[in-house]
Amino acid sequence: MRRRLVLFGGGLKPPxxxxxxxxxAGGPRNARILAISWASEEPYASQDSFNDELREYGVLQVxxxxxxxxxxAEKDAFVAQLANATGVxxxxxxxxxxxxxxxxxxxxxxxxxxxxxxxxxxxxSAGMAIxxxxxxxxxxxxxxxxxxxxxxxxxxxxxxxxxxxxxxxxRQRQNRLFGLALEHPDKLCIxxxxxxxxxxVDNRYAEAHGKANQxxxxxxxxxxxxxxxxxxxxxxxxxxxxxxxxxxxxSSSSAFESEGPALLDAERVPVA
Length: 272
Fold this sequence. Notes:
The protein is α/β, with parallel strands linked by helices.
């Protein structure tokens, strides 16, 4: 079963990325979207705004989960909503609210099962941050670069072997991903800027969206203390497994072919 994911960096959602989410979820007539606004301080306003966005794409079926479930009855109701969904969307806000729910392993397991079964997942800002195995909690020491400078917690873990960060260039968050890339050399660190998005197929083939802003790929490269950096603009694609800039179409992942080194790859960029 094909696994599909859309990472929105916060701010405005690029139209092509939102359209991709709707199409992957079954198209305007058949998509059944479950919008989860647990993280938002104003969940009802957040849901109304998202409903307006989906209405522009003709989506007819949208359900909402406004408040983080705590009782068994609330958890059962949420699982029932999941069972009906072809697409799941996490709103922005405070990722720690979502992380507290994910401590319930039964809910976490069910969400992962849905993803593996072909339900399309997406999130914006904090709702994006929780989709990787390690989630940045927001606690950062900006004066240090390296181990312990950034606090993380276990995330939902849909996009394996990654750490993702939102509002990336807009809020100058490069240092915290550089530090995490040094601390976790096995992970690909992905910074999605505000008003940008990254659509991913099969946890491997990715395409950036966003006319003005971009997506950065940061990974350990060339030995301890060296990082490789790739900047993706609108429509550019990346193989998360080979960690190279590629060509091809997300509609057919077999069409991806390596183009060699990434656009801004530095074979040995010392940062420590």
